Protein 1
Amino acid sequence: MGKKFKPISGGTHGDHHALWIDPKNPLHLIDGNDGGIDITYDGGRNWNDIQHMALAEVYQIGFDMRKPYYVYCGLQDNGSWGGPSATYEYSGIRNEDWYFIGGGDGFYAQVDPSDHNTIYRNYQMNGLSRYDLRIKRGKTIRPIGMQKEPPYRFNWNSPIHISPHDPHPTSVCADDEVVISRMNGNISNRDSRKIIHQRKPAFPSIKRCEDAKFHPNKQEI
């Protein structure tokens, strides 16, 4: 027993986390993975992808200032999504009311306080983009290091913060710096502020960034 193994996960979602084996029928398996649940009745030769269960792992939540306001979230291995918090429709909120704004492991999704059509979202290692709802298209704005300096390093779940104070500068946290853009995230107009003054191999990184409660022009890290 155990001298030879062969894969049986063809047709399932990746990143497997749980497996149930029917004690009365070992060919009946239930696989729990990043995409939800897959079931086989023939030992893995054929899998049924269960798509009618509402399953998701949400990392971060954002919202806009509309009435009713819209909610944005980043999902584990299933990108970033937006949808209404409420509706005037008799049928309630439907699946088609939600829309996709980017792939990867969805993390932060922050909306420009003065323009609900502009959304900043990122995926793993700060794959940062600015999404425009009017044209349904995103633009990559991931900051890069200055010339002759080490490149920025980002946490797996890098924070994004948009100040509620005019002119709503956008902040992106790298491992030891806060990169601030005052022009809609454009890389050509940014200010980098070093917080940790010595790079360490243990990879210290900033986990959260927000406006100081009593100082509108300052930020807390």
Protein 2
Amino acid sequence: QEQFCNYIHRSCLQPRAEGSEYCIRHVLEDKAGPYRQCNYVSGKSGKRCSNAAPKAANRDGYCSEHAARAAMWRQRANRRKRPVDNSGPLLEHLLHYSPELEKSLGRALPQANVISSSNQPSRVLDYDYSSESDQEPIQVDQAWRGDGDSDAESIDSEQEDPLKHAGVYTAEEVALITREKLIRLQSLYIDQFKRLQHLLKEKRRKYLTAKKMEQDILGSVIPSTDEDLDSSDKEKLRTLRATKRYRKRHGAEALLQSRSNERRIAASESHLVTKPTPPPRCNIIIDGERCSHNVVPMSRFCLQHILHDPHQVLFQHCSHSTGGIEICDKPVAMGMDRTTCVLHSPLPPQRFKLPEKE
């Protein structure tokens, strides 16, 4: 057990790194250990590498993977391209100025070669310039981006996804990642549909405005009869009318289309608007007919027949009686000052005096 990683959040069977109680993946948990976070920062996402790098291994502070890549880039940058040897064609053009060649030939070279050879100094300069430019090495910082000022306690990678560099996912992690992607996709689709609805309404508004303006302008221009038009205008008017009714349906096809539209509108309204359910009626049946009044909340009886509910404790019988016999069956709310219904309540005392008759 002592040879394995000492990671506290779960059991890790990876071997320990040198000089630490954790493996190379969890060695950053040891803040006092000889490792720190890799200084490489991605140029695309801007996130820092989460692997561990030895503090005294290299000056760049990269992990083993990025240190190997940096060394490879340095080797490529230090390579010098060997210039192409173009001395052969240049020497052939310079043979014109060789006196030994004229003596061997016994005659002077033609004038055309002299004219062409006058352009050779520029070629020599071009060759010299190209050979010097090929030897300029590529700087490492042009192809590599690092951060030497960051250390193991940096908070750059605290918000990084812990599953980003995972090679194997559990079923729960896969389901969670898929669910988050679907929720994000659903929100994007909803936003897109809202945008399309806005564009559709805006275009319809512009179309109706343009149509109204066209009717206002051209309504008086186009006559109701064809008698005042010449042959060319009649032909144009006939073409315009045919174009307007080209997409319209006629006869039985128009009737079927209108019925189809009505069914579609009814189906869409039934899904969008839920019809309110009618409130339940009282359960009392009088003379073979059921009471048509609505029930009191949390009961099966209406206010008029609430006294038939044996479980209610809010109403009582009217206390009006004649000869000790209760003759009124109206309900009265309990906890009130009066115990009789409205019909049997006593009249309030007289507050004014009637004028006396003389």
Protein 3
Amino acid sequence: MAKIQSDASVASTCATAIQSGASGITAWTNVK
């Protein structure tokens, strides 16, 4: 059970990182 929760946590963290990365790229493009 802990393993499943851990995997879900990692997936959530990755999704958040991807979202923030995408918005960061968008902001950088807008600045340029």
Protein 4
Amino acid sequence: MSEGDINEDFYLCEGIWLDKGNKTLTDEDTKHKLDINNIDDMIIIFKREVEAWLFAPMNQLMNDDKDINSSYRPFKNAIFMLFGIFSYIEKIQRYKDGEPYISGDSKSTKILTLGFKNIFGSNKKSEFGDKKISTILENTRHTMMHSGNIGDKVLLNYDYANANAVTYIGSNKNLCKIELNPYSMLLAIAKDFDEYLKNIKDGATRQDNFKTVFKSVYSDEIKLLYKRENFISLKVKI
């Protein structure tokens, strides 16, 4: 793609304004010009994107349920929250591993499995190996993508005050029960995100992995904001 593919000014994400004509990127919250090739400014953009497009809508859905009933019934927004939660799990694991999404990519399940294990790997009631995680993903993310609903093995846990995020009950795949608490899951991914932001610049590999995925997501913007000859050094390693 060429910079001609960007033909108008637009918000890169919440409060980050790209001026095509002047080739500038401005943080409207601070009025500062951002350098999309600077690691600190990359983190500002990434943080704003995830918080505004994933966490803010999920928190709104959660608060909407709580406004209806403080005990979290009927939990009418839970499935939509799960869409956001599983989107986060794959997204953040790709950044951690330096695995940009490519059209036709067949790695999603593998990346999701690792991401799920990293965030929800164990709790007081369940230890999650790959087989259990596979069953959880099959009955949640995969089923939701195709049918808009959760699988019949999944129960939504309404005891949001003291519940585990994920509880897997039973040793038989066909007879198991999976209890999910989107409220607790949201708290867990928020904690994971905070920890990741704090540690992005710890070590060359972690930082390089972040940059690789970031530059794949914003490749057109980078091409526009930098001269063509400088873009050679910014190419994403795929």
